[in-house]
UniProtKB/TrEMBL annotation:
<dbReference type="InterPro" id="IPR012340">
    <property type="entry name" value="NA-bd_OB-fold"/>
</dbReference>
<keyword id="KW-0689">Ribosomal protein</keyword>
<dbReference type="GO" id="GO:0019843">
    <property type="term" value="F:rRNA binding"/>
</dbReference>
<comment type="subunit">
    <text>Part of the 30S ribosomal subunit.</text>
</comment>
<dbReference type="GO" id="GO:0022627">
    <property type="term" value="C:cytosolic small ribosomal subunit"/>
</dbReference>
<keyword id="KW-0694">RNA-binding</keyword>
<keyword id="KW-0699">rRNA-binding</keyword>
<dbReference type="GO" id="GO:0003735">
    <property type="term" value="F:structural constituent of ribosome"/>
</dbReference>
<dbReference type="InterPro" id="IPR000266">
    <property type="entry name" value="Ribosomal_uS17"/>
</dbReference>
<dbReference type="GO" id="GO:0006412">
    <property type="term" value="P:translation"/>
</dbReference>
<comment type="similarity">
    <text>Belongs to the universal ribosomal protein uS17 family.</text>
</comment>
<comment type="function">
    <text>One of the primary rRNA binding proteins, it binds specifically to the 5'-end of 16S ribosomal RNA.</text>
</comment>
<protein>
    <recommendedName>
        <fullName>Small ribosomal subunit protein uS17</fullName>
    </recommendedName>
</protein>
<keyword id="KW-0687">Ribonucleoprotein</keyword>
<dbReference type="InterPro" id="IPR019984">
    <property type="entry name" value="Ribosomal_uS17_bact/chlr"/>
</dbReference>
<dbReference type="Pfam" id="PF00366">
    <property type="entry name" value="Ribosomal_S17"/>
</dbReference>
Amino acid sequence: MVENEVKLRTITGKVVSNKMDKTVTVLVERVVKHPVYGKYIKRSTKLMAHDEQNVCQEGDLVSITSCRPLSKHKAFKLVEVLESANR
């Protein structure tokens, strides 16, 4: 591995809002095991991602990756639209 190379985190999620300019809100769901009871529980996180061309629509399945902070809440950028909601 090359020096100064950073492993970027890539996440898949669903777009829940595209009302902002060049920004989308992505809902990321994960399954975690309860520490005491052992039951698997769904947990979700909303992340804001930078969408330079405003290509995302609500309901799209997208891939996002971490980047430097672009604003107070936005530290991810759009990599690609995996599945469009219109299909």
